């Protein structure tokens, strides 16, 4: 039996519960198909069940309505790559990390709530809202991940991180279940399908903002440790330390290797998750009830999967468990390519497999990376890490959208994603975990 979490570790887990509902209900399930429908209507595709290759104009660019969600996610990630390191440098120098976490979360929830006003053919407000909320969510996670190092020892982090992810999937699954009732039973509530979707997206923003209050109240503030000295004002120090971080990370080759590996395999994970509802709806012909039900199944399976990988890491180490999880993702992508249209049973089997490996690989990535960071630099390094974090993948979603625009089919788009898992696995195999932990000046845990 693993040891129980401390009071602060339990409080920290609540933010996984808070933000996972937004990622699940909005970014994973409802936003992409609904945006494609609204944008398709603006582009001249009145039938929401047909693939729309017609374009809409965004800042002078003519983008296929069916690719628009992927392009928006890619843009949010590019913007995050510039914003998050600045936020991270600021967080490392602040004794109020929980305030930064909560302020960014509440701001992100505000913009997420604006998705309620995306209706008819008014897709522009949804495009603005999803980009802003995604960037702010990433900013809040920089502080959140940095707090993990303050409330747990090196040997505790796999367990704490895995339970946090499990708790997040449970919360996300619970809200998704409530939204399933609203969307599928919209007639009983006197709602149209689109109004039910809009209310569900609004509920995710309210959930995110509301449950963030718990970690904000219960977590303690810690005095920053081992902060690198820097002159000037806060903004000047933040920008200056950003460039110092980018220079110095090259002095930690194992940390750099893991960041590159994570960039690739996590982009693959995020693109699979973000495009699952689009692939199921537009390519395989499943109704919204099947899609939401499948994602709901994935959420609850992922709860057990995160706990399972936490136990696996305690026996075999986070590094080996991550490598095994990456191989599992390769198998899932290959099977998904050949799913026949309309076969619900096989779609559910793939969903169960996704749930088993999804939570574990993400939770252990977070805790393993914390071992490769120099003390006092958590915000800066987690900012680099978080630029490729869930919901803000860049290369994967961009490739997914471009391949669809070129081929008019989502099957080759899914096929293209396997390259990200292959590259991630190759880089992980080149990694020496104990060397990386020693180079960062950290204690080597019992199992690496």
Automatic annotation (TrEMBL):
It is a multi-pass membrane protein. SUPFAM superfamilies: MFS general substrate transporter. The chain crosses the membrane at residues 21-43, 63-87, 99-117, 123-147, 167-189, 195-217, 249-265, 285-309, 321-339, 345-369, 381-404, 410-429. The keyword Cell membrane does not apply. Residues 254-448 form the Major facilitator superfamily (MFS) profile domain. Keywords: Membrane, Transmembrane, Transmembrane helix, Transport. It is found in: Cell membrane. GO terms for molecular function: transmembrane transporter activity. Gene3D superfamilies: MFS general substrate transporter like domains. This is MFS transporter. It comes from Nocardioides acrostichi.
């Amino acid at each position: 039996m693993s040891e129980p979490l401390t009071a602060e570790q339990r409080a920290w887990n609540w933010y996984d519960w808070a933000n996972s509902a937004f990622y699940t209900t909005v970014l994973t399930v409802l936003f992409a198909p609904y945006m494609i429908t609204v944008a398709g209507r603006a582009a001249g595709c009145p039938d929401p069940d047909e693939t729309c290759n017609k374009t809409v104009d965004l800042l002078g660019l003519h983008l296929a309505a069916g690719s628009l969600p992927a392009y928006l996610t890619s843009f949010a990630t590019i913007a995050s790559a510039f914003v998050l390191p600045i936020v991270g440098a600021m967080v490392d120098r602040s004794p109020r990390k929980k305030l930064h976490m909560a302020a960014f979360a509440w701001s992100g929830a505000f913009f997420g709530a604006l998705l309620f006003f995306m209706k008819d053919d008014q897709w522009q407000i949804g495009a603005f809202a999803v980009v802003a909320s995604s960037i702010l969510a990433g900013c809040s996670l920089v502080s959140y991940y940095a707090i993990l190092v303050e409330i747990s020892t090196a040997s505790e982090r796999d367990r704490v991180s895995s339970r946090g992810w499990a708790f997040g999937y449970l919360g996300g699954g619970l809200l998704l279940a409530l939204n399933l009732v609203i969307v599928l039973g919209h007639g009983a509530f006197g709602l149209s399908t689109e109004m039910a979707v809009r209310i569900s997206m609004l509920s995710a923003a309210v959930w995110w903002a509301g449950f963030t209050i718990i970690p904000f109240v219960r977590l303690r503030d810690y005095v920053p440790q081992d902060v690198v000295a820097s002159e000037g004002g806060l903004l000047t120090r933040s920008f200056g330390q950003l460039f110092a971080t980018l220079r110095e990370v090259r002095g930690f080759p194992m940390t750099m290797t893991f960041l590159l590996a994570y960039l690739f395999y996590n982009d693959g994970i995020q693109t699979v998750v973000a495009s699952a509802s689009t692939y199921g709806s537009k390519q395989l012909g499943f109704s919204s009830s099947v899609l939401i039900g499948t994602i709901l199944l994935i959420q609850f399976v992922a709860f057990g999967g995160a706990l399972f990988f936490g136990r696996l890491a305690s026996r075999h180490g986070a590094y080996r468990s991550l490598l095994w999880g990456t191989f599992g993702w390769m198998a899932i992508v290959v099977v998904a390519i050949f799913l026949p249209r309309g076969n619900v049973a096989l779609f559910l089997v793939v969903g169960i497999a996704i749930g088993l490996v999804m939570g574990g690989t993400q939770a252990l990535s977070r805790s393993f990376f914390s071992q490769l960071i120099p003390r006092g630099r958590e915000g800066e390094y987690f900012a680099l890490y978080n630029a490729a974090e869930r919901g803000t993948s860049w290369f994967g979603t961009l490739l997914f959208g471009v391949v669809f625009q070129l081929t008019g089919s989502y099957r080759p788009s899914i096929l293209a994603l396997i390259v990200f898992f292959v590259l991630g696995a190759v880089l992980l195999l080149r990694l020496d975990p104990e060397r990386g932990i020693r180079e960062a000046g950290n204690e080597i845990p019992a199992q690496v």
